[in-house]
Structure formats: C-alpha cells, structure tokens
TrEMBL record, chains A, B:
Name of protein: DNA-binding transcriptional ArsR family regulator
Species of origin: Actinopolyspora biskrensis
Cross-referenced PANTHER family: TRANSCRIPTIONAL REGULATOR, ARSR FAMILY, TRANSCRIPTIONAL REPRESSOR SDPR
Keyword presence, Transcription regulation: yes
Domain HTH arsR-type: 1-87
DNA sequence: ACTGAGGATGACCAATTGGTTATATAACTG
DNA sequence: CAGTTATATAACCAATTGGTCATCCTCAGT
C-alpha cells in the first residue's frame, strides 16, 4: 500500500534493506544488527512488507526475510530526470575547469 | 538537517520538485498547482529548504524557488547497488526467455 | 504614512510514526 | 502434554507530521 518513498524515509528500514542485499536474514539477526527491540524490528518489517520491498520464507519458527527490489524502480524512475540535471551541472563544471586551467 | 529521503517521503514535496525541474516558481504558483493553502505550501518549502533541495531568490515581495538537485545524489548513491540487483533479475529473465523460446 | 500583495510564522489539531513492554501465536523438543 | 524458541501483535506513549486559520513582516505604490 505505502509507497517505496515512505518506506525509505526511515534509516533503520534502509539499513534492513542494506542487510538483505547481501543475503536472507532471520528476524533475530536483524534485531542484533539494528540494536532495536524485536517488536520494533517486526514493525519495520511489516512496513517493508506492505511496500512489497521484502519477501518472507517460512522455515519452522524462523522467518527468512529477503530483498524484493522491484518497487525501488519507482524511486529510480522518479530520480531519472534529476540525474540528467546534476550531470549537466557536473559537465558544466568540468568544461569550466578545462577552459580555465588553474 | 533532514535527509533527502525524508524530504521525498511526501508526495506534495515530490510534486514541488517536479515543478521546479522545469523552471523557478513563485510560491503563489505552487499554491495554485498543489491545491493546498499558502501556509501549507510554505511549510513544505521550509522542509525542502532544510534539506537543501531548493534555493530561494528574493525579488521584491516574491520568492522565486529553484531546484537544487545535489542532495538527491545521496538517494541515487544509496540506490546504486540495488540497481545492479534488479538489472540482474531482468538479465536472468531475458536469458531464461532466450534459452526457452516459447 | 497607508494600503495591499506575497510569504513566512505561530498556534492549533487530528493522525501517524517510531519506539517500548507485555502478551499471543506457532512450531519444535523433551 | 509442558516447556522453549522465534516472531507477530496489542496496547501504550511521546514526538512528529501534514494540514488548517489567523497573524505578522516586508516591500511597492500611492
């Protein structure tokens, strides 16, 4: 439901995604890494689930959370025109430096 | 002070940035486009200012707001490793389709 | 100096957020 | 079945958010 933008607003949630980028993680591992209470982490995971940014695999009592990066394309797409914008600025800077050595 | 991530969490603020991408805008113009009250828009503009995402040029009573895209590089940089991630998935899909025609 | 226009700020409000502790649920273990 | 482990949910709380209306400030024109 929520957009990826809102999900990324919180640094702990970005940290979770960063951790999931390397491999799947059980909740307890995320708790250790984030230094939050277990329910605190579970709440962030719920937000990420609702934004479809993670998947869950059940294995006995454990839930293995994995990264699901697709919704990030929304952010990437939104960013695209701006990217052109700032590379223009860098290009202009480079041209300026070339034309005005030292 | 606030990060670009937090500033982008609100759709109205993203809309403001989108409008500023085309050209500078006075506050009254943004008010018309967003359909919010003038103070409401001013509050969003303050947030964007504090995230260094906009610049203000004073011209008599008017404030001309302009885009300042640099802080978006933080988002772009964070996104970079994920970009590789989902293009991998697309590549895998393409390989799968090539190796299994129809 | 007065007036009006353009914006910012203050005060307020309901809803949401990010965290907590306590409790519930579900699955393995003896 | 009783106990333990892993996670989710409930209840609660203070702080923040996104919006409003009313007011203030600054500048231009008269």
């Amino acid at each position: 439901m929520a957009t990826a933008f809102a999900a990324l607003a919180d640094p702990h949630r970005r940290q979770i995604l960063d951790l999931l980028r390397a491999r799947e993680r059980a909740v307890s591992e995320l708790v250790d890494q984030l230094g939050l209470s277990q329910p605190g982490v579970s709440k962030h995971l719920r937000t990420l689930r609702e934004a479809d940014l993670v998947t869950v695999r059940h294995d006995a009592q454990r839930r293995w959370y994995g990264l699901c990066p697709e919704p990030l394309t929304e952010v990437d797409d939104w960013l695209a025109p701006y990217r052109a914008f700032w590379s223009d600025r860098l290009d202009a800077l480079e041209r300026h430096l070339e034309e005005n050595p030292d």
